[in-house]
Amino acid sequence: MADLKRADDTILSVRNLTKRFPIKSGLLKRTVGAVHAVEDVSFDVHRGETFSIVGESGCGKSTTGKCVLRLIEPTSGSVTLDGQDFLALSGNELTRARHKMTLIFQDPYSSLNPRMTVSDIIGEPIDIAGTYPTKAERDARVEEVMEAVGLDLAFKNRYPHEFSGGQRQRIGIARAIVLAPEIVICDEPVSALDVSVQAKVINLLQELQESMGLSYIFISHDLSVVKHISDTVMVMYLGHEMELASKEELYANPLHPYTKALLEVVPRIRTERIQDKRILEGDVPSPTHPPTGCVFHSRCPHATERCAAEVPQSVEVTPGHFCSCHLYA
Ligand code: SF4
Q1: How many angstroms is it from 296 CA to the middle of ligand 1?
Q2: Alpha-carbon 46 to chain mean position
Q3: Residue 236's beta-bridge partner residues?
Q4: What is the pTM of this model?
Q5: Residue 28 CB coordination number (10 Å)
Q6: Residues 40-89: pLDDT tens digits?
Q7: Ligand 1, closest atom to CA 301?
């Protein structure tokens, strides 16, 4: 993949990221195959931007986020954070670098420890990192962050079950930003919430981005939400990058047959420029035995013999607009 625009303000560079989970079988637990979760994915995230990864369930977007954070170790590839080789770090260096990159979980109901108070949940990363030498300073930081996410300080000593879904996600966000990170990976942060609450949480994320200069990796299956919040969008299918462009360009001029199919089934963002009206047919193939060539060929209305034989490379079709499809090679 060619270097993307604005290389000077790149905060995170991911190159050729691959994650294959071995499949073991038999008494000796021999490796008999692999789940191809993420294959050769490359992208840059710039300071202050929201970089979204979008695709159907099981397309590898969450695994990509977890590999970037090293919650799961990638099989191969590189992750460069603020100029540092993140995958080579260990010990204290890794701990310090991890303060720069945090995660907001999908499900606020299960991601908070039910036995901890709000203050302890939010303050725990501080306690582990030891960034504030006195309890008074630690408590002051917890209160500062609670106010920033719109939580009443009177709730400090309450427990997660006493809150609504939206408030719990605010607690999760407060915990994620308490160490003043540079990048927050938001993994489907609003998909478990009511639609009315979703907008409030999205607005909060945008306010925090503005006030703290945060960069987001926003992982979602919801093209409407992604359209609202993103600067740049990468579309994934079966672990592969299909298309990458600025939000405006991707929604106005989608190139990849998969992106067009995704947009076609979202009536609110249907655009007249999409000529191909065929609906995406069939299920996503198994990542254990992904199709040869272009992984989308078993569902693509434009597939040719070449598509089944040859993996399409990511090509910069117009400046900053990348597409992995033989139609544009
Ligand atoms: Fe469809 Fe072929 Fe393009 Fe893949 S490479 S999206 S199968 S036309």
Answers
A1: 6
A2: 14
A3: 241
A4: 0.92
A5: 6
A6: 999 999 999 999 999 988 899 999 999 999 999 999 999 999 999 999 99
A7: 1
